[in-house]
Amino acid sequence: MPNSDPIAVDRDGPRVTVILNRPEKLNALTRTMWQALGAAIASLSADDDVRCIVLRGAGEKAFSSGNDIGEFANERSSKTQAIAYGHAMHATLDELARCRHPIVAQIHGVCVGGGLEIATLADLRICGESSRFGAPIKNLGLTMAYAEMAPLVRLVGRAVALEILLEGRVFGAAEALQKGLVTRVVPDAAVALEAMTAAERIAEGAPLVARWHKKFARRLEDPRPLNPAELDECFDCFDTEDFRIGYASFLAKKKPSFVGR
Known about the structure:
Layout: E1 7-12, E2 15-20, H1 31-45, E3 52-57, E4 62-64, H2 72-75, H3 79-98, E5 103-107, E6 110-112, H4 114-119, E7 124-128, E8 132-134, H5 146-156, H6 158-167, E9 170-172, H7 173-179, E10 184-186, H8 191-204, H9 207-220, H10 228-233, H11 241-252
Parallel strand pairs: 2-3, 3-5, 4-6, 5-7, 6-8, 7-10
Antiparallel strand pairs: 1-2, 8-9
């Protein structure tokens, strides 16, 4: 891993890898990690030079095994403490949901609990054949709060979300794909390459278009009718330099090099 920070950030041109960096604990999440992840995503979202974020856990044993239970005695042993801890978690989930850039979750091994909550907010989720998923929090006597449950329900629907929470099973990649929880399952040895290839494809596209598509998809979750200004925005792309570059490159049969303007 690039460094020992609990959340490591590794930049490669317009592609950025954000790493849950606690491999000795299967990337179990602490309050400090939640806060650092939120800060990292907020900073990257504001950076116009970023075109794609790959989010992964350190090593290949786990994306994340969820929240660190060992921290509960000092951080989540009462309702008052849990509310404060929840505010830190939910602020980070909000940053992930609002991120302007596409996010690819590169999932090795275990992805459960809080790790699953983070992964549901990625735009693509690519995992290995031996990856395992679930939210067995019923065994801890804990609920998944509204802010944590909403992305799961949006992704897989009410019935599947309740199946995951009520049974508390940990299940494999094939079932996760069938449930719509992941986008793609590949051999374990190919996860990193597949995620990076997907990120490269995204980064090669027009970045303004990727941001618009994310914005439009979020807006379509809102049942309110689209207003005239929103409908008009769908055609703003025709006034961009990237449209002129893409159109000219298509006619010239060459690969476009977009500038984000």
